Fold these 3 entries.
Entry 1:
Amino acid sequence: MPQFITHLSALRLLALFALCLFVAPSAFAKFQLTPEMAGLSIMNEASVIEDANRQLTIDDIVKKDWAEFKPQEPNKTVKGMSTSAWWVMLDVENQTSLPITWVLEAIYTHTDYLNLYHIDSDGVVTMLLTGDKRAFSNRPIASESFAFPFTTAENSQEKIVMRFAYHEIGMIELSTRAWEKVAFHNHSSFTYYFYGCLFGAGLFVIIFTLIVHIPTRLPEYYWYIAYLTFVLANSLANTGLGHRFMWHDSAYLTDSAHIIITAFAFICALQFNRIFLQTKQFMPRADYLLKFLIALAISSILFYLSGYRGLSGKLLMLTSILLAVMPLIGLWAWKVLKRSDARWYVYAWSVWSVSMIVIVTRLAGVVEMSDLVLWISRMGLLLQTVLLGLALIDHVNVLRKEKQNSEDKLIASLENANTLLEEKVQARTAELELAHQEAVSMAETDVLTGIGNRRFFFSRGEEALQLAKRLEQPLSLVMIDIDHFKKINDTNGHAAGDIVIKHVAETCKQRLRSTDIHGRIGGEEFACILMGTNLDEAKIFVERLRKDIEGTAVASTLGAIKVTASFGISAMSAQDDHLEALLHRADEALYLAKSNGRNRFEFL
């Protein structure tokens, strides 16, 4: 038997329970003990009474008329948030020929005060006191649930009375079951194995997320990890493992951790939903709802800390029910907003909603309390966190694809811009080259005649002279001067003079080859460089040109103008290093031609 056992006054209690056992008519069915018990519910054979004022004592209970106790209805072990104390009465009977060692287990792990009174067949009364508000070391069996060991003699009958109560208010869950001793320990070992898998999987997901995804620095990952951490902490609190292994010396944490941690888990989950689905940008109405739920969860914490535990629990329950809309919001993002990464989100919150339905139906008494019901809700929460992890992985893949598509579009845009820029540069370069050529041409072109000007002639002539000397080819230079040009201007006007100049330039151009160089070097003076032409060939060319000029009259507004020209010829010699020497001789020859009567050529 456990250490914390109180023996009541034998004389007083023997008389009381003798009256209960043998005089008063029995109001209870008897729970039959067997050696094969493996978590059998005893509540169908139990009866309960509500002590609204929490003033009844065990003496009061045993003195009461048994008719005041009501048989416990099947699947109605949950009494909801209550300030009352609840008494459970049970007759147990061993009809076998051997003693039965068994364990009575109260499943719910958050009852503040649980008093058990055991009356054996000899009328000996043993009182066992446990609960969250009492030291864990005083528990009859070291278990996260409330377990009591018994040995019932063969062919005997015993009574068990239990009192469930809270310091102020709390969830009353009367589920109690019976185990054969070995079966109970086997069940505990098996449960711990599953707990290890549950928490190990949760820790693995947290570590995996930290290692793989935190470098992305996406805020939704931080909220996801916070949510998962609170889910695991909440599992520790709700299963009683936290009280047993971590904070068993803290009655406050044992009493409060599961409520406060649940509220924080809701807050992290809701904030994760807002960021993951981008509700503020794309679903503002849904975002208002999520903010409202966050406010409810925060309010539940504040009310709890302020002492309004009942209101706090109701707000948490309301928040959990309203969270069932999350699959609908995710479905809208998936199907309407075309968020492919929202599919895993929908699956995750659908699983969560199913788990919440199981929990709510259990609390409403629709579903009987059992290990299956408990594990469906617990594994549902674990599966939800795993599915949310998959949603985040899919989310990163979508972001990576969007980033890659954006980069590809940017690269294509840059390439197009570069191509366009190159085309513009090429076009601009061509324009500049053309402009340069036009500028050069304008700088080297005589405006009146359209042939090369003095600058052009001297620049190209010098190049031609150096090329001819390098190739050892003949070259001749011809100077041309229009005869009596001043008289033409004075007699016919400057406009007529311009016509004469253009006529002489055009006549020379028609006689010259494409390789020859032709330019206007003065008012009525022209010069030609004849490539590959010696002095004799130059004389023949000049004579023909002289006749062409002489043989054609120039029309003007004042009538036809007779035009002649004088020519000076010089041929390149080995001593001519620069154009100036050749030009000087041709100029002297031209002067000689003009002195000898004009309309002729001379050579030097």
Entry 2:
Amino acid sequence: MRHLIIMCGAPGAGKSTFIEQQGLRPFTISPDEFRLRLGGIVMSPSGEMTVNHAHEKRVWAEVEDVLDFKMGQGQLVVIDATFQKPGDFTLPVRLAERHMYEVWCVDFSGVPKELALERNRLREAYKVVPDQVIETAYERFARHPMPKNVTRIATADLEGEQFLDRLEPKMRDLSSYREVMHIGDLQGCYAPVEELFADGFKDDTYYIFIGDLLDRGIQNGEVIRFAMREIVPRDNVAFIYGNHEYHIQRFAKNLDPVSREFKFNTLPQLEAVKFTRKEANALLAKADDAFTYTFRGHKMLVTHAGLSRVPDRLATLAGLQFWKGTGTYDDPVDQTFSDLMAGTGWMQVHGHRNSNKLPVEAAPGSFNLEAEIEFGGQLRVMSLIAGKNRVEIETREIENKVFRKKAKGRRGDSISASDPGERGKVSEKLLTELEGHSLVRAKSFTTHPHIRSLNFTTKAFKSGQWDDVNIMARGLFIADDRAIVARSYPKFFNLEERPETQMRNLRNRLQFPLKMWVKENGYLGILGWDHIGDELFFASKSTPESEFAGWFREIFTSEAGDRGLSRARDIVGKRNLSLVFEVNDPVRDPHMIAYDTAHVVLLDAIRREEKYARLDYQELKQIASVLGVRVKQPGPTFAQWKDFEGWCKSIEAQGRYYQWRNEHIEGFVAEDLAGFHFKIKLDFYSFWKWMRGHRDKIRRAREKDQPLPAPPDDDLAADFHEWLIVQPDEALERDIIQLRQEFEGQ
């Protein structure tokens, strides 16, 4: 949830110990960790080993980037630094204002100075600071008051208390009301609201609006005036922050719109009714990420998008999961909640997603109030009403008769599961050849029993046995009716790997111009269309059931959002395309090249037909823009052989030092005028892939108590070897990027 916790206190005061004891380490950003990562440990003029403070500007720039990213997702964040004077608070407080965070300061300035000095001397040598640093800190604490927009908590007030208890939203008891009414997404539609409240608000009823007040509808002005008139001032009304409230938040903070819908549809309607930023801030101040309450024996969780279960601590869950829900838009969140919370007494109410058009009670104990009101659907309402002997559950659906015609590809569009026609199928002849090929393996799936994949075998890969049939069997998914659900590239090879990709043969084969595309360093994600299941089909390599396929789906959904998913349905389903992505996940699947965040890169849009064909780069860029994702980047282009040959010699001469636009990359994919492809792996990537294997040899030798491998016959590799063998076992568990950064830092 949106809480920012600032640690304030001198070195040695006990801040880091408090973080560990309170279980806050997973949520903590420490400038010292960035100092170590960027500057390492150096020797001071007096001979002590100490943390390098020579890169403070970059350290705090890194802190700001990470802090801004985490707060943009509504994550709980702790900053472990000293914060000695008002100016130190400027950065986090400014970001907290932008992202609507509550700011807390755990104040260790009351810890006796003598105790801080003593603890400082007992720390690891490189962490010890001169006594004067601590003396100066205490002088500053005495001179400077805490900023007014920060809630200060002295450590003495936390004795024996779990700090997270203070952050946990309090469960309200609404049993004094006759009724608790939950009102679903409004999406800028006022006509059903007017009908619902024809008799006005009642004092014996508690009202909960579950978010997404605006967008997509054509009555945003009426809705926002209703909200300011009725929702904001009333004590018996709660308002849940939904993903569309983010656009109101940006308006409130005077930031440019990031949504075309808000910019060109919603905002003009708000301006027409003179909606102000001051009003926007007042509305958002009313909003809760999550709301829990009891009502005459019932325990209720209300969020905008629905959770898989009631978490042990709501405060530790990122706001993004309340706004967009756990899992993806199509995940069966209602049934999962019902299964996991059965017998606990908990129920939940949410809106936002309902791709399967489930009823209001979508599963026992889970109520779904999303019914496409903005496209002529219904406003859904669910009430708990106190009866004589029990609580009654009452549901209501009010049709919206004032709406604009549904555009193709919007959320909830039902794309007909019609036969894709022979053009979108593999021929019986090719299917027979694929299934009968000794180096092609078919795989079936529990989650998609009507689909199977056909991929070349490990033997084909290791032995290099390729022909026109098994070279096509790469990421190829076929339904029972022979329709192509998804497909990737035919297999292509590295420079010098095969006779046809050797330099001596390329001279006469290539048709110029020859284009280079930057090769990303992740794994392949394939997005297709399951016309039988009437849904998007996410896969990685040969399966939709691996954790990699799940991560691909998660990352794509996070980046594209609801609208991107809807547009993907239209693009992939109706245009008969398969979209191929590189999935870069620096946390769960780091490779050799460092990335800051998890993201997908659109590589190509391939027609779901037997004959391999792709869209051109301009169309590809348009699709990426519509989906809200990155697109592959062009590298150099060569007009003739001598230019390409000279470039190859140049990058070979530069070896590990070659960079493309000041960055290390994995390499390039080359494509000539006739569509012939091959890959070029750069030395930097190949070297660190080799070093990763060498690291693994050292780990295995240690595990089996065997002699360590000999140092490689390469100066840098030998240096890295010597550094690795003195690292503890747990250090060698880190990925090669982390090890490389630590090695280079030292």
Entry 3:
Amino acid sequence: MKIQKLILVSSLIAFALSIPVTLSAQNYPFQNPNLSINERVDNIISLLTLDEKISCLSTNPSVPRLGIKGTGHAEGLHGLAKGGPSNWGQRDPVTTTIFPQAIGLAESWDPEVLRRVATIESYETRYIFQSPKYRKGGLVTRAPNADLGRDPRWGRTEECYGEDAWLNGTMTVAFVKGLQGDHPKYWRNASLMKHFLANSNENGRDSSSSNFDERLLREYYAYPFWRGVVEGGSRAYMASYNGYNGIPMTVHPILKEITVKEWGEDGIICTDGGAFALLVNAHKYFPDAEKAAAACIKAGINQFLDRIYPAGIRAALDKKDINEADLDNVLKGNFRVMIKLGQLNPPEMVPYSKIGIADTIDPWTTKENHQAAREVTQKTIVLLKNSKNLLPLDKGKIKSIAVIGPRAGEVLLDWYSGTPPYTISPLDGIKNKLGSAVDVKYAIDNKDGIAVALAKSAEAAIVIVGNHPTCDGAGWGKCPTPSDGREAVDRKSINLEQEELIKAVYQANPNTIVVLVSSFPYAINWTQENVPAILHMTHASEEMGNALADVLFGDFDPGGRLVQTWPKSMDQLPPMMDYNIRNGHTYMYFKGEPLYPFGFGLSYTTFDYSKLKLSAEKIKTDGEITVRVTVRNTGKRTGDEVVQLYVKHLDSKVERPLKELKGFRRVTLKTNESRVVEISLKAETLAYWNVAKHRFVVEPDQVQIMVGTSSSDIKLKETIRVLE
């Protein structure tokens, strides 16, 4: 008895200190690392009391009595969020390395960029979780957001990787792998993808339904999540607030029928924050918490992001709407994830257990991480216009420059940002680049004509404008500026209110450069028509200003590309709640001419495409071909090009998109350098969802292979025949 008490006390002390516990005296099977994960999980379930089972349906499945140290969640769309505008760190935030917003990361068109960001983020997450200096946070990271930005009015566009399912899936896989690491047995973090699925409206999201057919479910909305699970290895995701075809996603049968039974998802499936209560008071899908709780468990939910679920679970058990075995079945996923994170094994067996223990320097303070943030940000910047080669500016010749605009002197953080250790604003970056030899003038706006006066007196003017990612402190659910948006608020306009400032500055100085710092597309029609140079970048990077200055003054060639179609007006868009993208959403079905097409972006140099060759003219339905194209830098500078591969089905028996992205490569070429760029194309990526057969089918078909610089700029074409 004394031994058992001693073990229990030791367990509680170690739990409080966040030190993994080995209870060899008890010899519970789950403590044996040599057993299979399922054997260990089954043993844990058999040892839990009912109260412990209900407690483990929270976001931290810890069981102090058994020495089981679970781990909670953390936010991390573009760097670990332990602070920021939403105060994710609560009373004791920690600074971390903060990169550009997720949609900006996608604009790099470089999966290695996503993987690099996620790797740094996951290391810092482990560090804070394990370091004696901090010992806080969790290892289940709520990222990436694999949902699709089908409409530029969506208030949370900043969180996604754009409108294309294939690109989104590729970036999702890269971020998942970066978070979880390469070890065959353990994860550095667990990647919990958000938000499954079709949640791209904010207004009314707590009760709205996203309605579309089975083909769009499989081919578009679910596709990035499928790749995240099957290819990336994620075993955790969050169900979205909205419904799909009338059924709230929190209790939708596809959670279990598709993700669990088909894809092999066997880890965490959690609700969104407060979604449990919304089933009753917003969706009004159930009369009470008891019925809602039972339905969540039966659907596969095993973690609730609220504090009120226990009463509903107990009531459902009392009324026998569910039984304890139902809890057992879903709880297993939580402990599978804990084992993969190494939480139930001796530290010496876990390769990541020394992070934060052996380190003496906070990683976000290192030159390596600062440089990584700068290099990543450089790659996300998109050149939208550069007439008369106004850019890059020559820092050796320019003597005066006016930096103007509300986004010039600040780095704004979004709702899912953490707190960076420092920030370099665009104004700071420009001053850093130019030094004291150049007169850098600055004005926030044109009050009393100051912006115009400064622009007239300078050789060039840089106007830095864009949205406020948290709507300037207006409060939850409020965005006074119509073109702004954020979580809980969709955009009312896509016109840029600050375009009047651009007009005034341009009239004062024709050498005007616009830097649009924004979380989503804008219909900047006047600016595109008149202003000679335009750059786009997104918010939040700690190195925003230095990276921007690197591009403005030619130390880095802009190679970013857009990941959404930028319309000329909202008149070109279908109704916001029309989730049938075939009615005009995305470049695949867009009707009319956009301001900027999907995949668009310019360079300071020029590129020539030639010699498109296919490894075969025919491909079997289970085959693969290699597409090769020669790309040459024909300009006078080293630069980045993004080679994009699209396909068009010529003889399909079902409706297909106008074109679909199926591959890309970002390459850096020196002046006059040529390179043969190879892109693999598997026949399986040409499949459509056959509703009658309930599976993907690659049909006999003629498929046009198109290679170009954007969805609207196709340079070369060839045709292959798909054979049975």
